[in-house]
Amino acid sequence: MWLEVFLLLSIAIYLFYLWATVNNDFFVKRGIAYKKPVVMFGNMWELVLRRKSIIDIVVDLYSEHDGQVYGIFDQRQPVLLIRDPELLKQITVKDFDHFVNHRTVFGDENDKNNLFGASLFMMKDSRWKDMRSTLSPAFTGSKMRQMFQLMNKVANDATAYLKQQQKESASQGLEIDVKNFVTRYSNDIIASTAFGLEVNSFENNNNEFYLMGKKVTTFTFIQNLKFFLYVHIGKLMRLLGIGLFDTKSTEYFMHLVLDAMKYRKENNIIRPDMINMLMEARGMLKSDNLKSHNREWSDIDIVGQCFLFFFAGFETVASLICLLAHEVMENADVQEKLLQEIQDADRNLDGKPITYDIIMKMNYLDMVVSETLRKWSVAAVVDRVCTDDITYELKNGQKLEIRKGDCIWIPVAGFHRDPQYYENPTKFDPERFSEENKDNIRPFTYLPFGLGPRNCIGSRFALLETKVLIYYLLRDFHFAAAKNSSIPLKLDSNGFQLMPKKGFWLKFISRN
Question: Which superkingdom is the protein from (predicted)?
Fold first, then answer.
């Protein structure tokens, strides 16, 4: 009996090993230089085991090889890491029709229990094109002007909250975890501009909308484990009815969006937000501007777009603002120059509220935001999947065959930290993006929001949201180091989220 158990166990272990290493010779067959994988974890083992941040992982992989393409393994999946700007241009722009889709990892459009899988990010081919053109009008310059008023109000509420808190420690300044503060700001903006809700997360710390946002964007051990299992056995996870997010979170967003649509239709309410745009797409509202695609959008399709906007805006924009505030605090010359631009704009307003046009004309503020996005790539890597075989000739004369189903990675953080494109890349230097210098940046080496037709649809929104808050904060407060500030800034090895070990602690000292 024991011999039978031993034999069965040995066979099971052998079969598991074969399954886990089935792709290990992928790059050998193609004649491509590659990094040897660790069983099951590939070259991502330090990320899975929380040994390094995603930025450090991507930069290290990028830096290990000097060719145009490098073979790596994202767990069991072979991935072509593209390291050459010209090849990147060819793939993302000229041959975009061969690389339309993202890799299916965290569910897909057929997963009816997964809001993320139903979102624009995971949609494929014509469905993606139709939804992209449906949502694009929500992010035009004219729409940003309308949304600016909503953002401005939330930024004022946020600044007023800090002023009130600072009164209690006027002489010492106010030390806070900026991430907690900024996620409340981004939460209230999303509530207003996407969902049509009036939420003040500074006065009501535990409102349901904010708590749900924290829940779905916090990467706990269980959440990381779910992501890991979805990568390896996604079909089984869906078959078992195990979603990336719990049923309560999914039902909350379903009811929030669908009930809002129903209420607006019954009461003839029109607002310049995403729900309004999705109602037009569904034919619930008449629109002269919306393209007709003759496509029926399901409930999960509609709610998935709002959920993606919420998920990306809640965490990603908050991280960008925190990283920017820290760099401004740590670089006194940058803070002084940015303050000067803000004060000049404020004086010219002569007591009137800041406007969209003035924010957009603040060149140094734009330079500071751009440099933050370069040094701290909020999206460290972007992927694409080949939908039709294609061959490229590399500089060394070798032919690179990319076949249908092959996955490529665009190492954003790698390009941004490459010294051949950015001198002294770890230095925070907004002057890289000045009018005199920005033309020296090699095309396709600065890609904070992706490249080509499948770039980030919400980039304008994210930039405006960031600039508005920084304008008010720096106008009214000096940014100083707190006791728990991480100087120099070093990211915690907690995987996907960009966070120092002790958090983003800063001291705000009133200028009044």
Answer: Eukaryota
Q: Which residues contact 249 (CB under 8 A, 6 or more apart)?
A: 212, 215, 216
For the chain, the first-to-last Cα distance in angstroms comes to 82
Task: Please give the DSSP secondary-structure letter assigned to residue 256.
Answer: H
Show binding-site residues for heme. 456
Residue with token string 């919306």: 290
Residue 100 domain-assigned (yes or no)? no
Q: Which amino acid is at 453?
A: P
> Positive or negative CA dihedral for 376, 333, 161, 504?
positive
SS (H, E, C) 152-220: HHHHHHHHHHHHHHHHHHCCCCEEEEHHHHHHHHHHHHHHHHCCCCCCCCCCCCCCHHHHHHHHHHCCC
DSSP H stretches of helix in 64-124: 85-89
Smallest CA-to-CA distance from 73 within 15, 26, 18, 17 is with: 26
- For the entire predicted model, the pTM comes to 0.89
Domain carrying residue 277: 114-323+466-511
pLDDT of 290 strictly over 60: no
Cα gap 206→217, rounded to integer Å: 16
Q: Which strand (E) or helix (H) includes residue 142?
A: helix 141-166
330 to 111, 188, 335, 432, 488: CA distances (angstroms): 45, 28, 9, 18, 8
> What residues contact 401, with CB distance under 8 A and at least 6 apart?
30, 389, 390, 391
**How many residues in the chain?**
512
Residue 481 lies in a domain: yes
**Alpha carbon distance 338, 487 (integer Å):** 21
Q: Which DSSP string do the residues of 467-490 spell out, in sequence order?
A: HHHHHHHHHHEEEEE-TT--SS--
Q: What is the CATH number of the domain that holds 192?
A: 1.10.630.10
Q: Is residue 384 part of a domain?
A: no
pLDDT digits (tens, 9 = 90+) for 335-380: 999 999 999 999 988 888 899 999 999 999 999 999 999 999 988 9
Annotated binding residues: 456
Instruction: Write out the two tokens for 53.
Output: 């941040």
